[in-house]
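Tutorial, part two.
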Amino acid sequence: MDTKKELIAGLNEDLSYELAAIHQYIYNASVISGMSRLTLRDFFIKEAKEEMEHAIYLAEKIASLGEEPTATAKPIQRTKDVKGMLRASILAEVDTIHRYTKRIEMAEKANEIELKLRLEDMLAEETKHKEEMERLMADSRL
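Running the prediction step on this input gives:
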């Protein structure tokens, strides 16, 4: 497979995970209950909106590279346990960080400079998401 086709396949994989993240955060926001709902509901909604921006960018980039963006999301984890929600979200963010790191290298190799720079921004945002959730996990009240 050539460099551009590999890159597009990777971007479609990333898109399917971003679509899943949107679903995951909306699910979390809708089922969270108790005192955690007061703060984490809005947190999860904000995360869903940020992941939607990533998904829109990826879909448009895939289309501009001449391919069809996927419309299929990866499966999500259904849990009503707050720590379980955060744990699953942290693992998903770690996975995304690894994929975006790889995709940045692929974009550079394909001489897709704008894509490389945007992926670096998205990588920074995903890293921030992970760090915020790690800090939330440290709260003994959850």
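Residues 44 and 119 are 22 Å apart (CA to CA). In part three we will examine how such features are distributed along the chain.
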